[in-house]
Amino acid sequence: MQRVLSGMQPSGRLHLGNYLGALTNWKALQDDHECFFFVADWHALSTNYEDTSRMTTYVRELLIDWLAVGIDPERSTVFIQSHVPAHAVLHLLLSMITPIPWLERNPSYKEKQEHVEGRDLSTHGFLGYPVLQAADILLYKADAVPVGHDQLPHLELTRELARRFNSLYTPVLVEPTALLTDFPKVVGTDGRKMSKSYGNTIHLSDPEPVVRQKMKTMVTDPARVRRNDPGNPEVCPVFALHKTYSDSTVIDRINHECRTAAVGCIDCKQFLANRIVEQLSPIWEARRTFEANPARVDEVVQSGRASASKTAAHTLAEVKEAMKI
User: Fold this and answer.
1) pTM for this structure?
2) Is there a catalytic annotation at residue 196?
3) Rounded Cα–Cα distance for residues 73 and 277 (Å)
4) Do 127 and 13 reside in the same domain of the chain?
5) Which candidate in 27, 112, 320, 324 is catalytic?
6) 176 and 31: one domain?
7) Which of 185, 193, 214, 269 is catalytic?
8) Residue 270's domain spans which residues?
9) pLDDT by residue (tens digit) across 158-204?
10) Are residues 10 and 140 in the same domain?
11) Core vs surface per residue 285-313: b (16+ CB within 10 A) or e
12) What is the pLDDT of residues 180-192, one digit of tens each?
């Protein structure tokens, strides 16, 4: 079985975009891959180092969301990055051989420097976070990393660092390949991409009344002012979500009846809300189970730490031997 590794930063409650964009893929990978999934709490510090007061809460919530959607600790190694100090050690060792221009050409570095407001990102940690990312991957000798096309530059840096290390010392590190996946763009309640920063999310932990209320406020075709005005589904965010959630029969019906004003926006939203509630209901039930049994979550964390630490220690020992240190 190929080994895959992926992680998420704990930056708040997960939403439908996270679920459809990553977690559904992670669930599927468990069937035929050896999976390592980690909470990237050290990575979160690269942009949120000033306020760490909620980090513990965010880590816990993230783990509960993962378990509730079906990330199975019996089939995958689920762990917290900071619980395995080998990540920091390999990060340090790799940073010694990383050319500064490799980091400065990182497109995300330039983009966030220009667009993230209210935070000083002129830090060593932010510039060097791709090296920590490389350490996360190389430490477990992952064969593949599930990524979208926009994340390929990050993975290529990991591959370059593996090649550079193996050339300087001894071939120890595995060059991971990209496991390209299609991450659907999930629209939020305001019509933009669903994102915590936009405040337009439907969270996996939102109770049913909150989900239905958010759906009622979701924007629709701006040209459809009155109930009897025909609409254009192709410019309607609600229809975009229908294409993600609803079956073909409902999609075809909405596509036709919206254009002829046979269905109103309120009813259209109601159909979608019903489908979203149907999908989230088992997740809500599973969340309640884990929230009521915190010891079970602790067991997952401890088991994941032991398993990840064992694999990481083996790789780190090989790295130190190769470097003669």
Assistant:
1) 0.92
2) yes
3) 26
4) yes
5) 112
6) yes
7) 193
8) 206-287
9) 999 999 999 999 999 999 999 987 767 899 999 999 998 889 999 99
10) yes
11) ebbeebeeeeeebeebbeebbebbbebbe
12) 877 678 999 999 9
